[in-house]
Each structure stands twice: as C-alpha cells, then as structure tokens.
Specification:
This protein has 99 residues and is mainly alpha-helical. It contains 4 helices and no strands. The longest helix has 32 residues.
C-alpha cells in the first residue's frame, strides 16, 4: 500500500529553506529534523534564492507604479467618457419619446 503524499504549507517551506540558506546546519541535518527528503530541502532553498529579489520590488498600486497608474487612469477616463456619451444619448431619446 502506498503512503499518502504529504503537503507542506508555504510557511513551513520558507522556514526550512531559510534555515538551509543560513548554513548553520547541513542539508542532511535539516532534512532529518523536519522528516523530509534532502533533495526537497535543496529545491526549496533554490526557490527562495531565486525569489528574494521579488521581496524588494515595488508592488502594483504602491508608490512608484507610475506607468501602471497612468495607463489605468487613461483607461478609466476613456470609459467615463464612453459612459457619459451613452447616458446623454439615453436621456435625449427618453425626452423625445416622452418617458
């Protein structure tokens, strides 16, 4: 009978990867402590190293997102204009029909 595959949450993975990144214990010791395969510890460590720059990037909607903000603002202004034209047309037609 096959053993059920364990699923680990992001907090657990990040804790294990950070411990491996610190280098205080070997990968083997960390794997034994958390009862996971050493290859998995190495994979999580690689992922952590690859994604560290994302932690310092500015998020959309935060300060410094000028280009995204400008394009979204222009899009919203054009939508407002379109809706205003439709509303004016509907108001004019309703007056003509006596509604």
């Amino acid at each position: 009978m096959k053993a059920k595959r364990r699923r680990h949450d992001a907090t657990f993975k990040s804790r294990v990867a950070l411990e491996a990144l610190k280098g205080i214990k070997t990968i083997q010791e960390i794997a034994k402590e958390y009862e996971i395969h050493p290859v998995q510890v190495s994979e999580w460590k690689k992922i952590l190293i690859a994604r560290i720059p994302e932690a310092f990037e500015r998020k959309k909607g935060g300060r410094g997102g000028g280009e995204d903000f400008e394009s979204e603002r222009n899009e919203l202004h054009s939508k407002i204009g379109e809706l205003t034209v439709k509303l004016d047309f509907a108001a004019k037609k309703s007056r003509q029909l006596g509604l």
